[in-house]
Design brief:
Strand content: 15-25%
CATH architecture: 3-Layer(aba) Sandwich
Shape: globular
Order of helices and strands: EHEHHEHEHEHH
CATH superfamily: Glycogen Phosphorylase B
Number of domains: 1
Distance between the termini: 72 Å
Number of helices: 7
Structural class: alpha/beta
Family: Belongs to the UDP-glycosyltransferase family.
Oligomer: single chain
Strand order of the largest sheet: 3-2-1-4-5
Radius of gyration: 19 Å
CATH topology: Rossmann fold
Helix content: 40-55%
């Protein structure tokens, strides 16, 4: 009897900041080139920024690679703030909406994608999110945390306590103020 092999299908959730989106786009394309079906969940605001930057007026950042035969699907959800809202000037409000509002919209999208074809194998999400592991467990998906920054940055975060203990930061315990 012939066995049918289904290609893996990953849902990919980008952290909606430019320095995180570009490495995520590159990984999504690389996985699609290796036979994955990728469904990207992006925010309306990042979609708005990237579609304005497309030289050919394309509304979808994956349209060109899709024409080359890659199976990358694309959907957007709100992050909880209006598209024109300045996220960089309202950091705390933006972070709160990512945690409480955006995560709920992503969950709705994941539920819809999981109920459609092809079968979903895994959820890939930026490491900066704290909720995707729980979401993946809820839908029985393998969770893959994707670190988008350089390895040096990861090492600095990982060893921050040691850097402080050994005096590599100027103000240990008694800072006079911020410049």
């Amino acid at each position: 009897m012939e066995e049918r092999h289904q290609k893996p299908h990953a849902i990919f959730v980008f952290y909606p900041l430019q320095g995180h989106v570009i490495p995520s786009v590159h990984l999504a394309i690389k996985l699609a080139e290796r036979g994955f079906t990728i469904t990207v969940i992006n925010t309306h605001s990042i979609h708005h920024q990237t579609s304005r930057a497309q030289p050919d007026g394309e509304d979808d950042m994956f349209a060109t690679v899709r024409q080359k035969g890659l199976d990358i699907r694309y959907t957007t959800v709100p992050d909880g703030l209006p598209v024109g809202f300045d996220r960089s000037l309202n950091h705390d409000q933006f972070m709160a909406t990512l945690l409480h509002v955006f995560s709920a919209h992503v969950e709705e999208a994941v539920e819809k994608i999981v109920r459609s074809e092809p079968l979903v194998s895994c959820l890939i999400a930026d490491t900066f999110f704290v909720w995707p592991g729980k979401l993946a467990r809820k839908y029985g998906l393998l969770y893959i945390s994707f670190w988008t920054e350089p390895a040096l940055v990861f090492t600095l975060y990982y060893h921050l306590d040691l850097l402080r203990i050994h005096g590599h930061f100027g103000c240990i315990g008694a800072c006079l103020g911020v410049l």
